[in-house]
Amino acid sequence: MYKTYLSFLVISLISACSLPTDDTIPNLVDAIFTCDPDGGNLINYYDTFATYVQIIPNSNKLLYQNGDDLMIYNIENENSYAIVDTLDVYSSGNTLHTLNNTGEIVSFAAIDDSYYYEVFMYNINNELVFKVSHANDTHSIRPSFANTCNDIVYLQADGDSRLNHYKLLIYDFEDETTTVLLEAESGDKIHNPIFSHDDSKIYFIYNLSSEVFLYEYNLISDELSELISNVTVSYNLLTISDNGILCYRDNSEFIHIYNTNNSIDKTIVEGFYPCISPDGSYIAYQSSNVYASIYSYNIQNDQIHSIFGYGGYPLFSWDSMKISFSGMYDSNQ
Questions:
Q1: Environment class of residue 186 by beta-carbon count within 10 Å: exposed (0-12), middle (13-18) or buried (19+)?
Q2: For residue 183, how many C-alpha atoms fall within 13 Å in the half-sphere facing its CB?
Q3: Quick one: pLDDT at residue 196?
Q4: Are 298 and 326 found together in one domain?
Q5: Is residue 19 part of a domain?
Q6: Spatial CA neighbour of 236 closest among 245, 249, 227
Q7: Three-class SS string for 133-176?
Q8: 139-180: per-residue pLDDT in tens?
Q9: Contacts of 159 (CB under 8 A, 6+ apart)
Q10: Helices (H), the chain
Q11: In terms of residue numbers, what domain contains 241?
């Protein structure tokens, strides 16, 4: 009896520990996806490694970053090409190349010939449009377009480290002038500047003596105001809707929406890399700081939708009709 039971146990263990077949071994493939805000109509457009996938307005093209390269994927002819392949584009967890509102020009930071970061603007046909000049031995990073496309806001750091974001600047394309809006004290840092929906203000994250705040700079009155405390820099994109709803992440991993019209702040859900839709109806986010589950949150009815099982960096299209993101899928499924 004992021998029979032992033989059965050995056979069971061998069966349980047997190697999987080729069909059961996961074969994870990087890809670019889009879907509706509620997760419907999921489409895998292209198998490639990508971050910060954006739908280019008024076109059948997708913009994305692949390592140090900014790439375009043409949906119609299924062709991809580099917008700029001669520069090393700045890559960071909180950095986003930005399109102007017509989708014709992309701004980004990249290393120049002297090994400092500069702000470049290229059109989607791989042609240099403009380069923002900067002081010697400084880095210029994190550019963001005004909605009118007449201005661009960016940060400047000293030459010792591009992580010391110590100046907030604005460049006026019409006057061809650069203005320093704010210079941080030694040890303080400025992060992720964006324009308000009417271009009258600039919102940014301000790290002051180890405390992190959400700040507003009024371009009309030149006034600087603290809006929210206990904000985090990490895994925080800082986005704003067309009706003035600002989306950010606090230092307890919760996503908030802040109404810039009435100063009402609302805690939404735990998550990383939040992004609000331009029409202010949805928030897209991921459940971890690395590739993880992607969700959307309906602001009107507080409903959460599961978007994708293993991906990152969700962003909304300009018309709020689609979410684009990068992810991985098992080609054996």
A1: exposed
A2: 4
A3: 94
A4: yes
A5: no
A6: 249
A7: CCCCCEEEEEEEECCCCCEEEEEEEECCCCCCEEEEEEEECCCC
A8: 888 889 998 888 999 998 876 666 677 899 999 988 889 999
A9: 116, 137, 138, 139
A10: 2-16
A11: 236-333
Say whether pTM exceeds 0.90.
no
Residues 152 and 207 in one domain: yes
C-alpha distances in angstroms, 129 versus 64, 168, 194, 199?
19, 22, 21, 22
Q: CB-based contacts of 248: which residues, under 8 Å, 6+ apart?
A: 205, 214, 228, 231, 236, 238, 255, 256, 258, 274
> Cα(320)–Cα(314) distance, rounded to whole angstroms?
12
- Res 9: pLDDT: 36
Angle at 211 between CA 209 and CA 216, to 5 degrees: 100
- Within a domain: 100: yes
Q: Are 239 and 274 in contact (CB under 8 A)?
A: yes
| Number of residues assigned to the chain | 333
Residue-wise pLDDT for 247-275, tens only, equals 999 999 999 999 999 999 999 999 999 99
Q: How many domains does the chain have?
A: 2
